[in-house]
Amino acid sequence: MADSTVFVGFASQPSILADTLRTASDQIAKTGGVKLRTWEDLRVAGNFLLDEIEKAVRAADLAIFDLTQLNENVLFEVGIAIGANRTIWPVRDATDETKKAEWNAIGMLDQLGQARFISSEEIVGAFMAERPDLQGRPLFEGTLQPQLKPGWPPSVLYLAEPEQTDAGRSALRLLDSRTSEDLPLVTADPNEASVQTLPWFTQHIYAAEAVVVHLSASRRSGSSAHNARASLVAGLARGMNKPLLMLAENDFISALDYRDLLYRYPDAESCRTRLDHWLSRTLQPIQGRIAETREATATLRLSTELKSVDLGEYVAENEVVGLSGYYVETPAFREVLSGASRVYVGSKGTGKSAAAIRAEAVLNADARKLVCSIKPQGYDLNGLVRLFTVFEARDTKGYVAESLWKYLLATQIALAIEQDLSRRPAGSVPDDPEWKLLEFISDNSSWLKMDFASRLERAVGELVATNETAGIADAREQISEVLHQGPLRTLRSLLAPVLARRERVSIIVDNLDKAWDKDADAPQLSRLLLGLLACMDAFRSEMERAARGNSVPISLSLFIRSDIFATVSLIAREPDKLPINRIRWPTDVALLDVVEQRYVASQEREVPPSELWSKYFCPTVGNLAAKKWLISRCLPRPRDVLYLTRAAIDQAVGKRHPRVEEEDLIAAELEYSLFAFEAALVEGYQRIARIDDVLLEFAGAPSQLTEGHLLEVLRSAKVSDEDTKHVIDVLRDLSFLGTLGSRDGAVFSDSPRDKQRADVLTRKRRNADEALPTYEIHPAFWSYLDIVYDEDSISLGI
Fold first, then answer.
1. Is the CB of residue 475 less than 8 Å from the CB of residue 469?
2. Which domains does the chain have, with CATH numbers?
């Protein structure tokens, strides 16, 4: 029998660890029947290192990788090996704690497994005991490939930066403009869902026609974990032979393996130019193949029954096309259709974007209505902060925000009309108001036909450049001159008679808060949102005056995250008068409908929704029905229920189970719990500076806590006495903590009224017996934090 070929990849630093791997490699090389090479053996003068390493990895029967330091070179090689269907054997120093935080943040590496070691002898001993070069099986072939769904449409996959820079915003806008319904953009946004699984990336890289990976400069927060994840994803794309472009700032220190795949840009414009050139070259040949792929999809049959269960994406923006087939109507959706002006507030994953997308589609189908959709793909937050700082006086600051929105609404509505009229077969009649408006848009396209974010940044730049004056009246005159004179005055006069013909004009705003990261100046930026709400009546009145008294029915639907709204309400003059609708899913039935309708839509035959559970899931988990168990372990949000259900199916498919068994659900629970934890961090950063330290301090705690125990945990997390009430309030808003007072169990809610009622009930219950627990940690966080619980005593609200 021929010798097995083994490749060994490890980091050169720290030197003591590298020496351990060299010694182990030397010992394994002396084993009979093994032909071994390390990455250092490939450093031949004149050779292109990436080519040599890639050849060695692809040719190896086994690739051994040391993951201890999460070295970017090594992770890139791991990705190549997985994508190329090679057997891998990861090893990791059992005593090295230096990268513990990054391991937890990355999440997807846990699926690789690893042999733990302290010395070279332990590596050699484990190798001889397991003989992974003879007994091992490729991860791709054994676990990932069975989960692939070949019928997925072609796409472009973009792994975004964790902190959105000017270059990141520019890249995202370009990608958005270069993709389409036939070739959609799938964005892996660390701020939207930082814990994407290895099967998730494998599926999307498998379907991708191009992969763009944006690395983060080491000086930026979260860069270490992000770049480790990005290196693995880039290697996976390389191993699967997908076109790959890697982007990073000019001062990024590149891993040696992929330095020739990486473009380091000096500024945002250079980043955009290189990406534009690469996309043009890469995407041009695929247009003809898209039609072939669509045809092949119709006849493709998947290999197993369970594998054919496709519940779609849990991020609505990544599945705009399929959403119409299974959208479950919500009160927020119906209210948008009714023409009510509201601010829809909800946590991540509650269905804000899904409601916005579906409402836009339904309203667009009615020719009597006009939909103006505002969903900016990032914008310059620092520019807005500078703007509001320049106009520091409260009245002037409010005036500039309202004036800015009047400008943005007028231009955005004009572009919406142009797009709407372009869909009409007959077009417009010469000299008609619509014709005149289209002529104006064409003549002023250089400044008018920018995307929303670019128009916003252009206006902000011009306002910041004005001279600050002592008087409020003079400042207002400057603002008016910049935003409302000249061509814009003409635009309003042309716009008004066109709008008066419509039965309704629906302005739908989503993603306005998406660019806000944990370092954003939230109080200043809240002025932007308050300015939108404050300007609507005045904007409508101006349009009606320009339309000579004819009614211009305009409604605003603004979708915003709960944590951002909490900050906005702090600076609002009368927050209780804001037209708020909190998006909540109070019943299990509605959440299960979201999953079941997706299942029904994925089947070619008519099936009852209940078939998903009866055919593909074990009947019970413990003493609960499987679907009840799923709901009990999730935060009550569609995204969370979909994530856990899909993760359970992926676990079962990976283990070749014909249905989802209890062990698959338990394994998926840990995966989902980390997802829920990361989502809580994203939403909590704006309100608690060290939210990660606070939440991690609950690790190992009981699921139910008395008030005294809770205070002990917060003191251990170094929360000061004066901040304690605020921190507890935020943890309740995040649904991390609920209060135990209701007969129905713990109350988890961010509604002020719900919390007030729960506080009264909890106080009365505690007065009756002070030893009773007061708070409960939501079950969504139990698995990741190793929360101690007694199934018989826990109230799951089922």
1. yes
2. 4-146 (3.40.50.2300), 148-300 (3.40.50.450), 331-582 (no CATH), 588-681 (1.10.8), 685-785 (1.10.10)
Q: Does the CA dihedral 217-218-222-228 come out positive or negative?
A: positive
DSSP for 514-566 reads: TT--TTS-HHHHHHHHHHHHHHHHHHHHHHHHHTTT----EEEEEEEEHHHHH
Phi, psi of 763 (to 5 degrees): -60, -45
B/e letters for 773-789, b = 16+ CB within 10 Å, e = fewer, are bbbbbbbbbbbbbebeb
CB 797 within 8 A of CB 778: no
> How many CA atoms lie within 13 Å of 671's alpha carbon, on the beta-carbon side?
26
Q: Which amino acid is at 702?
A: P
Distance CA 22, CA 9 (A): 10
Other CB atoms within 10 A of residue 798 CB:
12
Run of H or E including 89: strand 87-93
* Three-state secondary structure call for residue 704: strand
**559 phi/psi in degrees, rounded to 5:** -105, 130
Range list of β-strands (E), 123-249 = 155-159, 185-188, 208-214, 244-249
Residue 300: what pLDDT? 38
Q: What angle do CA 339, 422, 556 make, to 5 degrees?
A: 20
d(CA 627, CA 177) in angstroms, rounded, equals 40
Confidence of residue 397 (pLDDT cuts 50, 70, 90): low
3-state secondary structure at position 74: helix
Q: How far apart are CA 438 and CA 426, in angstroms?
A: 15
Kindly report, residue by residue over 114-139, the tens digit of the pLDDT. Answer: 899 999 999 999 999 999 999 888 99
Q: In a 10 Å sphere around its CB, with 0-12 CB exposed, 13-18 middle and 19+ buried, how is residue 255 labelled? A: buried
Please choose, from the candidates 632, 637, 659, the residue with its C-alpha nearest in 3D space to the C-alpha of residue 648.
Answer: 659
